[in-house]
Amino acid sequence: MRLLSQSSTDIIGKITPPVPIDNDPFIALGKLLSFIVRFLLIGAGFIAGAYLLLGAFDWIMSGGEKEKLQKAQQKIINAIIGLLIVFIVLTLFGLITGDILGIIINTPQGWQLKIPTL
What we know:
Order of helices and strands: HHHEE
Number of helices: 3
Strand content: 5-15%
Number of strands: 2
């Protein structure tokens, strides 16, 4: 019986409860905000990349027709402009909230919110 229980713990391993994000709610909120911004940035990148590839595919399949070629070029231009807008917004967000207002502090552990108090 002992041999059976010992081998079953070796197979399953030790189960530990999950570690909480942090005891400080402002640090947890900063990490959540950081996750959301990264998720949206990656999502926007994938969408713009797919739109860019769709424009390239349309360009290849245009067959030299001027109207189809212009539509394909416009898709490629729109995808590049979309990527630029995403990076400009992210830069302005970091500049305004971090450097000017001092609400978000970038630490090695992630973002930390510093809520102004009276």
